[in-house]
Amino acid sequence: MRTIEHHRSDVTTLVGGISGALEAEILTVSGDALTAHPERYAHRVLASDVLSPSSLPAFDNSQMDGFAVRSADLGAATAGSPVTLPVAARIAAGDSFARHAPGTATPIMTGAAVPEGADAVIPVESADPPVFPAAAAAASVRFGRPVAPGAFVRVAGSDITSGQILLRAGSRLGPAQFGVVAGTGATSVPVRRRPRVLLVSTGHEIRDPGSELQPGQIFDANTVALTAALQSIGCAVTAIPCRSDDAADLLEIVVREAPGIDLVVTVGGVSAGAREVVRDAFEKRGVRFEKVAVQPGGPQGFGLANLPTPVPVVCLPGNPVSALVSFEAFLRPAILSALGVTDPLRELRHGRAAHAFESPASAHQLRRGIVHDDGTLELVGGPSSHLLHSYAESTVLVHVPVGVSTVTARDELDYWRIDG
Q: Is residue 343 part of a domain?
């Protein structure tokens, strides 16, 4: 059987073929745009490097509410012999640049520009008295110790300088990334077009939630689960279930939709049964069907299908947990890699088993579980691939590698977080 790493590599290579078609789009960055069209901004990936149009901070500013001073004026200050300075006019955030007179203390608010001539800020609570004087009052303030040059000053360009790479191609855009773009004054970013995915869940037995089931029929969980999974990494999904075990019906759907699609993902019909609709439809059209040494999710398919033009097809097994685990192990990293994301795999973390359990030595097992505050990993539900509720209650997928048949309590195991 193929290893999980070998299959992931091949699927990544296949899906990577769509990368060139995911041309750049320009995405406006503003609060109005995000609130008016939030769907445009979820799970986007930068198409190219973005250079900062300005420096952050743009000017030296105060990190604290306090007094701007010239550090040399306080060189002799001690608790027993404090230095007294007259108080100058107050500076607030947004005020024009000002000049600091030597031998004075300038009240300054957080974020306000440090006046020219001052080189440090002393927090107001470190002054005597620890309050700002009334604006019209003639007042003085005492300081009982020296201050180092640069204290509590945010230096211009200390976060980023103008012309420096602000965000690199392949960055996934979230709140901090959009925020720093806006903070530098940029109004747009180039993003990769969303991959257009045709998702086809298959099975004569599947019906839409809310419909009346006949004996032997089941509600279609895979369409909803895989649509949500694909959307969570930035895909635009067209979901059209095939409620038939006839290969001609499946091909009719895929051929009809293929001209506007980057990738076809099917669910179900990949095993070795008598009526495997996906295998029947695609095996003679360039799609390989093989067994991967992973549990759940052993039966897998992938290839460039002639429809009649070549279209990449990834075929997942039909049990709901198998489909979601296969998405995590193979499809998610492949699509993120095609988008240019530099770290497409989930972070591999380490914990210890909370209890003993068995695992098939011939397969890389991915078990559902939760991680406790002490780092121990507790499995949720059994290994069977139909236990979707167990998956819904889980926050991690626990890795048990090939060759391990028994895990004892406190054994170290790797895991992926799947709750974010």
A: no
